[in-house]
Amino acid sequence: MAYTLTVNGTSRTVDVDPSTPLLWVLRDQMSLVGTKFGCGVGMCGACTVHVNGQAVKSCSMPVSAVGEQPITTIEALSENPIGKRLQEAWLDVDVAQCGYCQAGQLMAATALLSKVPQPSDADIDTHMSGNLCRCATYIRIRKAIKQAAGVAEKKEG
Amino acid sequence: MHLRNDQSRRSFLKASAVTGGGLMLTFNLGTAKAATATEANIGAFVRIAPDNTFVIMAKSVDIGQGVKTSLPMIIADELDVDWSQVKVELAPLDTEKFGAQNVGGSTTIPRNWDNMRRVGAAARQMIVSAAAKMWKVPEGELTTGSGVVTHAASNRKATYGELASKAAAQTAPDLKTVKLKDPKDFKIIGKPTRDVDAPKIVVGQPLYGIDVQAPGMLAATFERSPVFGGKLVKANIDEIRAMPGVRKVVVVEGITGKGDPARQNGIEAGVAIVADTWWQAQTARRKLRVEWKDGPTGLQSNANWEKTALEFAKKEPQFNIRKDGDPDATFKGAAKVIEATYSYPFLAHATMEPMNSTASFNNGKFEVWTPTQNAAAARTSISKVMGIDEKDILVHPTQRSGGGFGRRAQPDPAVEAAWIAREVGNGTPVKLVWSREDDIRHDNYRPAGYHHFKAGLDAQGKLIALTDHFVSFGENGKFAPMCQLGDNIFPAEFVPNLSYGASLMQLGTPMGPLRAPGSNALSFVFMSFLDEVAQASGRDPLQFHMDLLAEKRVAAKAAAPAANGQPRPPGFDAERMRGVLQLVADKSGWGKRTMPKGTALGMAYYFSHAGHLAHVIEVTAGKDEVKVNKVWVAGDIGSQIVNPIMAESQVQGAVLDGIGQALGQQVTFANGRVQQGNFDDFPLLRMNEAPPVEVHFNITGNPPSGIGEPALPPVHPALANAIFAATGKRVRSLPFNKAAGFAV
User: Fold this and answer.
1) A153 interfaces chain B, CB cutoff of 8 Å
2) What is the pLDDT of residue B39?
3) Fold held by B209-296+350-441
4) Structural domain that includes position A23
5) Cα end-to-end span (Å), chain A
6) What pLDDT is attached to residue B165?
7) ∠ at Cα B523 (B300, B643), nearest 5°?
8) Of B60, B219, B271, B295, which has fewest CB within 10 angstroms of its CB?
9) What chain A residue is nearest to B198 in terms of C-alpha separation?
């Protein structure tokens, strides 16, 4: 089946089985490999992209369900002012260890700040708990989100 | 740098033009003859461009532990350039030029701290010599900084870039005696320095094995025997061949000899499906119907092991590991005797980037791209399994790996990709990607284990006897890989009457190193049981441990030198441990804070991978749930933290990793098959479960050691001890949610 998708502002047509997850269309058909495969069942969030501005786990969305909704991947995140701010905070805090999950974390965090510009710790827990980090960089992810949002870090201890 | 005195091995320097101008300084150590893995061709590390920028090679791969940044930092500091002038490149696999390049065991910093300094200092020395000759001034009148040599008396300056060609003609200094910086003059070492790949990570640039792309590349998936060592009887291969996109179906008979428990020199039996895309291969795989012959490993199950372990624990150990004094007689005369049985489960690694490798085979030669902790081992394994000479196998470690944790020390994904690529032939690159279920079910696991402890206290509450009957895996008195209990495991030598013995059960599934191997399990059982002993002694745990550690300074039995002849870093040192224990007690307010009912602190410490680490964990525990409020860590990893930002991050990650393991992770077997498969039944810690982790280092005059691993082992017992302090409930098996019925 041929599907025409709008990815990062560009219209592209692919010929794939309708069941093919958006993740594999991005990675194998469009060479957009910044979006990562982690679990294949929507439990880790490594594959998070924006579909119509919403954070979506692309491993669990068949290409046939995308329709005309615009898709943004990590490769174009810096065109989003919130995304750009988060990327800068990620660099400033030096969030990543292995870095594999961080594209998904950044996509999820951008969706969070788009909805909740000044998130509380509870907001961060709610919105970011679908994104696993095996290196467990959660403390820095939280710090970077707050820095990008201009929210003061809670004093610990 | 481990240099010999032999004159023929003196360093010499080669200068060669590099593309785009500039010079590559090649200090050659005569590596053609008998170079050991600990020696390196140092000049291969530094390239100087005419514009006075520097390419520094990272000799070892980054799996998230930060060495692609920290190793070049060490060279750059001694070279005396600014970090902003440096570009880092990952070295190709070339152990003659770069020395041993594998990563694991938190060895990269201790193994390379000194020699990376000498590489940088030698390059600087040659540049200084060149300037001294050019200006006809004594070298002692020259200073360096920011890649510039200055002669203050005559107000002359030259950049390293300008001096590079002259420097290349200098005799290389003896690496053993080259002058190193006074550590107080470090400008890069010890400064928080961002990961060199971070700018690429945040924009999603291809860095990982799974991102490898090549013209005409095909994708593969591999259905392995669900039981290790099982064989394929029959499968609906013709049906699969006809599925959309499928190009090739490869039946692998399997090589899993008995002498290869760690899967280093074999390949599992199974069916590989090669298609145009991975999704097509995976879709075809769902239609695959295979009849397997399990073999003897098909009988193994947790139920059997648990039953056997409890029977063994009641008997005498099958063999002795260590015996001091007379524990049995001491128990008879002891004022108090405490007994307890502990256990922990098998664990998978679950690296975030699933196992994968890409390979092509053409005219008898392999080219392989693999995310690995040990590219050289991957090359050796491919050579052995395929019968191809190592010189005909080109292995590229990928720019980064999406986590390692010991899993990528094993070469099996690279061997599988090579096998499939050979069947496809014609030089067609084939990328094999494991599903998450493949990853959880075909790992080299952290072994489970059972420990039956007995301890005796005298009337003053002093620990006078301790025994451990360890029920583990292996055959004929020989432990299976990663199952060992060493005779030097703490508190050996700190208790006068002590014995360790073991009994072994059969195991057919391969085991492998998981972050802090050995220690990641032994710490839980020993330091939890010692907390029970402390409670029974009537002393506060801090006091109990300070008293125990005051008995002796260092273990009498020094660790044997490593296989490559290098001396081991200093071993367990009670004084260093007391130092971190006091530091973490001070920082956490141990014994000084009033906490609400149900909230309490637990402490534990452990020596592993040359690091001395002590943790305090605060929990709030209710009847059926436990919340970790905060973790304090104090570590002693020697005289220098190379990159503080990464050291802190490694500790925080290790602590949260340990909490995740303790709360919910286990791999279990039934009919020889792993029962878990994805993050629903093998859960990793999530954002909402991650407490703050406060990290402190005690800087001591010891050689710098690694921090990827040693912060993990104290986590499990500190948490168990905190749960006991909060609830009175002693958790003696992992994971805690299973043992204590906690909903976490």
Assistant:
1) no
2) 34
3) Aldehyde Oxidoreductase; domain 4 (3.30.365)
4) 2-74
5) 57
6) 84
7) 115
8) B295
9) A91
